[in-house]
Design brief:
By secondary structure, the chain is an alpha/beta fold. The chain is built from nine helices and six strands.
């Protein structure tokens, strides 16, 4: 990166499996505009590392010892409302994805797709977009039909699935961006 290049996107990964953290580091090592600045083995370490490094994007596993990923997302977002977090998990389930999004995650990636999707997902979330695979977003929307989600929540989810940023969704629905984030 030269001085004329923009500042790289800083990333932190939080996962209890060292091999996965090494794999993420290897994927990101070849990206000129993304740099891995911190790693943590559980949610509690992730919160501490977030405070110390303030990464642009955090990659968060859900199932970890000491503090689970959802708890860590809530804790980080409570202190840093603008934190951008991508859940990286093996769980395809719509319930897990919906919980992660409601907790404040901006993306939801399956570990088996990291090699193909991770750099682009990081760039998209850094740019303020939400990143959820179409089939997972569809499952969330279908699940929402059976849950007591409001029509507004369903509409926001549909627009998230369409790749819209919070600001765009707010403008499209004539609501505040904070309302979109809270939905």
């Amino acid at each position: 990166m030269t001085s004329a290049d923009p500042k790289p996107i800083t990333v932190m990964t939080v996962d209890d499996h060292p091999l996965l953290r090494e794999g993420i580091a290897a994927i990101l090592a070849s990206e000129q505009d993304i740099v891995l600045v911190a790693e943590a083995a559980n949610g509690r370490e992730g919160l501490e590392c977030y405070r110390a490094h303030r990464p642009d994007v955090t990659l968060m596993d859900l199932q970890m010892p000491e503090m689970k990923g959802l708890e860590a997302i809530v804790a980080i977002r409570r202190e840093f409302a603008d934190a951008r977090i991508i859940v990286v998990t093996t769980y395809e389930g719509d319930v897990q994805a919906l919980r992660a999004i409601k907790a404040g995650a901006s993306g939801y990636l399956l570990k088996n797709m990291l090699r193909k999707e991770l750099p682009d997902a990081i760039r998209a979330v850094h740019a303020g977009l939400l990143r959820i695979r179409g089939e997972i977003a569809q499952a969330i929307a279908e699940h929402a039909m059976h849950d007591p989600l409001t029509p507004r929540e369903v509409e926001v989810l549909r627009r998230v699935a369409g790749g819209n940023a919070n600001k765009e969704i707010a403008a499209q629905l004539s609501i505040a961006e904070e309302t979109v984030k809270a939905t």
